[in-house]
């Protein structure tokens, strides 16, 4: 019997501050380790998802909520021999802080979700209804109201303030310097030797420390940043091939392969979602 095909729809909601949403049913998708600029908030409808968050692995069954903090390394695939189906959105820290501000909350520190998997039937129902309306309704006021209420309820029940970090050890400071360079110049080709000289540590030590503090080795982090840059170009209407080359990929197929592994959709599907409102 032929294996069913994956189905995914990625949409950017411009009227909601550019919020990105994903509706998907995956049979074969294996997300590689990656991060998002925003938080991952997902509701499992069918099946179960096995995923890594940070250094630990979890399983999110049907009707549970997946929570991944912004810039937190994670992956994902089906936890069963069949599929998993879910909706997800990726609000930024600024968008969540805006929700708190509008509600009159005095929140100190960043917003942090300590639990990767949450069992909250009422909230899951609220999120599920919100996702349905985000895709179906053409009433902006309705969508804004539902999203605001859902995110506020989520933060009230399952988030906590993350205090400002204390002064980082010297190794982490060096890693942050390299991370900042790879973020700002991700499209450039640079050697591990050059990075190690910049960090003033051996190449082996740099890879070990970078992977420890960032959750990805330098080359994987570079690809991650190139994908984010490619998304920016696609939002600006740049053709696929030009976006791939400008972001530092060898060609369009190179970008296509990594894009699908990280975002669950192809660059073409992502671009379609920019205009399919």
From TrEMBL:
Q: What is this protein called?
A: AraC family transcriptional regulator
Q: Record's Pfam families?
A: AraC_binding, HTH_18
Q: Enumerate the SMART domains for this protein.
A: HTH_ARAC
Alphabetically sorted, this entry's keywords are:
DNA-binding, Transcription, Transcription regulation
> Coiled-coil region(s) at which residues?
none
Tell me a Gene Ontology molecular-function term this record carries. Answer: sequence-specific DNA binding
Q: Record's InterPro entries?
A: AraC-bd, AraC_XylS_family_regulators, Homeodomain-like_sf, HTH-like, HTH_AraC
Q: Where is the HTH araC/xylS-type domain?
A: 176-273
Give the originating organism. Answer: Terasakiispira papahanaumokuakeensis
């Amino acid at each position: 019997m032929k294996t069913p095909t994956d189905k995914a729809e990625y949409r950017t909601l411009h009227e909601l501050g550019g919020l990105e949403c994903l509706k998907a049913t995956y049979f074969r998708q294996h997300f590689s380790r990656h991060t998002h600029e925003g938080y991952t908030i997902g509701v499992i409808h069918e099946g179960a998802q096995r995923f890594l968050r940070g250094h630990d692995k979890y399983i999110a069954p049907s009707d549970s909520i997946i929570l991944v903090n912004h810039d937190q390394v994670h992956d994902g695939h089906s936890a069963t021999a069949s599929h998993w189906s879910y909706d997800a959105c990726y609000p930024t820290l600024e968008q969540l802080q805006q929700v708190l501000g509008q509600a009159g909350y005095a929140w100190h520190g960043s917003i942090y979700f300590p639990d990767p998997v949450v069992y909250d039937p009422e909230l899951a129902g609220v999120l599920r209804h919100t996702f349905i309306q985000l895709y179906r309704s053409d009433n902006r006021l309705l969508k804004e109201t539902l999203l605001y209420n859902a995110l506020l309820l989520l933060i009230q029940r399952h988030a906590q303030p993350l205090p400002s970090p204390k002064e980082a050890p010297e190794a982490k400071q060096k890693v942050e310097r390299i991370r900042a360079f790879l973020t700002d110049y991700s499209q450039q080709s640079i050697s591990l030797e050059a990075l190690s000289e910049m960090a003033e540590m051996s190449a082996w030590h740099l890879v070990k420390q970078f992977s420890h503090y960032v959750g990805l080795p330098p080359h994987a982090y570079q690809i991650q940043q190139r994908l984010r840059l490619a998304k920016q170009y696609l939002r600006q209407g740049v053709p696929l091939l030009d976006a791939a080359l400008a972001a530092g990929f060898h060609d369009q197929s190179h970008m296509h392969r990594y894009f699908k592994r990280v975002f669950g959709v192809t660059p073409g599907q992502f671009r379609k979602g920019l205009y399919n409102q």
